[in-house]
């Protein structure tokens, strides 16, 4: 295992025009944070590509509405309610067991959850908010990879959405900015360890995206200034289809 040179910290994606439509028929894809901007777009994209999508999140009414949308464009999905802020290791183990017992296997895992309550200097950041943010952004993807390992095979792929650590490792980004750097390291370490054995662990770096998170970060700015989450969905599906290398973080910021 050799360190990643700084010059290739993030891997280039093919052009959007050159990526063919992903075929995910007969695949099971878990989308965590399914009601967020990236999660919703990824879930709809995977369903249209033929996957059975498991929607995981804490807002059941929103999951049920998304369930109906997915059912109209693809195979019948499933819902798995989970509150990442309060979830314990055994909750993630239970999720993995449920997927294996009820669906047989897990071919794709998309982690698109995030927590940012607003920009704040560290000296004013409540310790409880630091811990909640860290749990959602760092502990949760680690525990998901660990808990779902029993359901994932060598050809399975995990895609973790990532904000540009260099952009958010600045004043006022607090726990969110620190957690993005840790999430980058998690992707590289877990991906390097799995290597050719699988499952593959990959990251997808996106430009600032319209949705609640950016609204809380920049309340005075119009959401029209930010990229639509759907712009990055083809890259997520490209990774789920088995492209890219484990431990790689793929830069889709130029797609905005």
Folded structure, characterized:
The protein has a single domain (22-255), classed as NAD(P)-binding Rossmann-like Domain (Rossmann fold, 3-Layer(aba) Sandwich), CATH 3.40.50. Helix content is 39%, strand content 18%. It has helices spanning 37-48, 60-73, 89-103, 127-147, 165-168, 174-194, 212-217, 233-240; strands at residues 11-12, 28-32, 52-57, 78-81, 106-111, 152-163, 200-206, 249-251. An 8-stranded parallel β-sheet has the order 1-8-7-6-5-2-3-4, sandwiched between helices. 47% of the residues are buried.
Concise overview:
With 256 residues, the protein is α/β, with parallel strands linked by helices. The protein has helices at residues 37-48, 60-73, 89-103, 127-147, 165-168, 174-194, 212-217, 233-240; strands at 11-12, 28-32, 52-57, 78-81, 106-111, 152-163, 200-206, 249-251. An 8-stranded parallel β-sheet has the order 1-8-7-6-5-2-3-4, with helices on both faces.
CATH level 4 superfamily: NAD(P)-binding Rossmann-like Domain
| Overall number of strands | 8
Going by CATH, the architecture would be 3-Layer(aba) Sandwich
Mean pLDDT: 95
CA(first)-CA(last) distance: 33 Å
How do the strands and helices of this protein lay out in sequence?
Layout: E1 11-12, E2 28-32, H1 37-48, E3 52-57, H2 60-73, E4 78-81, H3 89-103, E5 106-111, H4 127-147, E6 152-163, H5 165-168, H6 174-194, E7 200-206, H7 212-217, H8 233-240, E8 249-251
Parallel strand pairs: 1-8, 2-3, 2-5, 3-4, 5-6, 6-7, 7-8
Helix pairs in contact: 1-2, 1-8, 3-4, 4-6
């Amino acid at each position: 295992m050799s360190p990643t040179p700084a010059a290739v910290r993030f891997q280039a994606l093919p052009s959007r025009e050159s990526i063919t439509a992903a075929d995910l028929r007969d695949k099971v894809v878990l989308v965590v944070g399914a009601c967020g901007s990236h999660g919703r777009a990824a879930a709809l994209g995977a369903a249209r590509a033929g996957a059975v999508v498991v929607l995981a999140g804490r807002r059941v009414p929103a999951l049920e509405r998304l369930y109906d949308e997915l059912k109209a464009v693809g195979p019948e999905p499933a819902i798995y309610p989970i509150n990442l802020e309060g979830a314990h290791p055994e909750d993630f183990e239970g999720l993995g067991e449920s997927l294996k017992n009820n669906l047989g296997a897990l071919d794709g895992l998309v982690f698109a959850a995030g927590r940012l309550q607003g920009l704040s200097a560290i000296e004013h950041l409540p310790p409880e908010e630091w811990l909640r943010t860290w749990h959602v952004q760092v502990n949760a993807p680690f525990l998901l990879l660990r808990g779902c390992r029993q359901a994932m095979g060598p050809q399975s792929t995990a895609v973790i959405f990532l904000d540009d650590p260099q952009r958010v490792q600045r004043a006022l980004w607090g726990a969110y900015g620190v957690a993005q750097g840790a999430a980058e390291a998690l992707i590289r370490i877990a991906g390097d360890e799995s290597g050719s054995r699988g499952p593959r662990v990959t990251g997808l770096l996106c430009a600032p995206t319209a949705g609640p998170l950016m609204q809380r970060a920049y309340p005075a700015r119009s959401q029209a200034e930010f990229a639509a989450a759907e712009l990055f969905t083809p890259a997520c599906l490209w990774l789920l289809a088995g492209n890219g290398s484990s431990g790689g973080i793929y830069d889709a910021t130029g797609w905005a």
